[in-house]
Amino acid sequence: MESTELETMRKSFNTVKKRSNDIKESPSTKRLVKRVREIKEYSIEHNEELFNQVCESFNRNDIEFRLAETSGDALEIIDGLLDEYNASTVAKAKSNTLGEINLKKHLKDTGIDVVETDLGDRILQLKKTDNKPVHPTGPASHLNISRITDIVNESLDVNVNPEAREIMEAVRSDVLNRLKNANVGISGANAIASEEGSLVMVHNEGNISIVSLKDLHIIVAGIDKMVPTLEDAISVVKLETIFATGSYVTSYMNVVSGPSKTADIEKKLLKNMYGAERVVVILLDNGRSQATPECLYCIGCGNCVVHCPVYNAVGNEFGFNNYLGGRGVAMSRFIEDDETCFNSGLYMCTLCGLCTLNCPVAIPTNEIIENMRRLSTEVGFYPKAHGIIRDNVSKKDSPY
Question: I need a surface site. Which of 68, 205, 224, 357 has the fewest CB within 10 A?
Answer without folding.
Answer: 357
